[in-house]
Amino acid sequence: MSECGVAPDEATYSLLVDAYTRAGRWESARILLKEMEADGVKPSSYVFSRILAGFRDRGDWQKSFAVLREMHASGVQPDRHFYNVMIDTFGKYNCLGHAIDAFNRMRAEGIEPDVVTWNTLIDAHCKGGRHDRAMELFKEMRESNCPPGTTTYNIMINLLGEQERWVGVEEMMSEMKEQGLVPNIITYTTLVDVYGRSGRYKEAIDCIEAMKADGLKPSPTMYHALVNAYAQRGLADHALNVVKAMRADGLEASMVVLNSLINAFGEDRRVVEAFSVLQFMKENDFRPDVITYTTLMKALIRVEQFDKVPVIFEEMITSGCAPDRKARAMLRSALRYMKHTRVA
Asked: Is the residue at 14 inside a domain?
């Protein structure tokens, strides 16, 4: 590039630094930063945020401190985007103390958190099991100059739903609408998921109908959440009705949905129907995966048809599907039961 008389600019260096970081070559990235400065191209905060994101995605969150030191050594002031990436990095690895420190540091430097900052911090505390602190942060956000957005309310609805605080869920939905925010596909999917997992099927179905009334089309993810909820409780007929409703809405069942349906029939001890789903897969160009076969083996064990488990295991291997630890455990369980039966 230089030989052609074209000097690399910040965008070029940024791409190269990003590539080195994602390859785990931090020292090479540092050398390139020095070359960048020597060529009179000052790296921006965005370049360092890309380096930080690269380490985050590789699981090297500890290098966040080295990136910040290098940034200060280069005379570059972190901006809001950099701090958002840093908070996200610490949050993803449950380093909540560091996330709060970064949050406090940005505010001390006169950088006001935006909705992304707050959402990232609140979500990290939700996922880290710090539910009370997440609620406190949400209240702080409401009192700040940054009002919660739809994503914020989605996070809080999920938090309250997982704790089965249904009055809180309803209040959060009402508050969201009072703020002039419209529930989106993620809002409704979250509601269907938390209601379904708690066995509140009527509320889950009502959410799907409300969504349609709002002119939104239910997603495959939403239907899968409901199918899976029914499957976990062995309510096979209900799960099957959801699949039918899904197809009536013009959505084709995915492998995930079909595997959940097999699980529903298995939990309900209806092995014939479980295998009919397998046949449907084969006739409609779905390739059964290790979850399919493992779920079928579990269904056979549930109804004590142990002798058929090795047959399914063999079919799995013949089809080119590599068994995992769980599949092998199913086979061992069946063989052990068969051995005890013969001895008895």
From this structure: yes
Place of tokens 């779920």: 295
Tens of pLDDT along 174-199? Answer: 999 999 999 999 999 999 999 988 98
253 φ/ψ sector (left φ>0, alpha ψ -120 to 50, else beta): beta
Domain that residue 344 falls in: 287-344
Asked if residue 12 belongs to a domain, the reply is yes
The sign of the CA dihedral 272, 277, 282, 287 is: negative
> Which of 95, 73, 72 is closest to 82 using CA atoms?
72
- Return the CATH number at 3: 1.25.40.10
Distance CA 301, CA 297 (A): 6
Domain count across the chain: 2
Helix (H, G, I), strand (E, B) or coil at 299: helix
Helix (H, G, I), strand (E, B) or coil at 40: coil
Phi, psi of 290 (to 5 degrees): -65, -30
Three-state DSSP class for residue 289:
coil
Instruction: Give the pair of three-digit tokens for residue 314.
Output: 């063999």
In a domain? residue 188: no
CB-hemisphere CA count at 13 Å for 241? 8
d(CA 226, CA 199): 10
Q: List b or e across 9-27, with b for residues whose CB sees 16 or more CB atoms inside 10 angstroms.
A: eeeebbeebbebbbeeebe
Single residue among 124, 157, 189 that ends a domain in this structure: 124
Per-chain mean pLDDT for the chain: 88
- Quick check: 217 and 247 in contact, CB under 8 A? no
Residue 146 placed within a domain: no
Q: Tens digit of pLDDT for each residue in 126-176?
A: 999 999 999 999 999 999 989 999 999 999 999 999 999 999 999 999 999
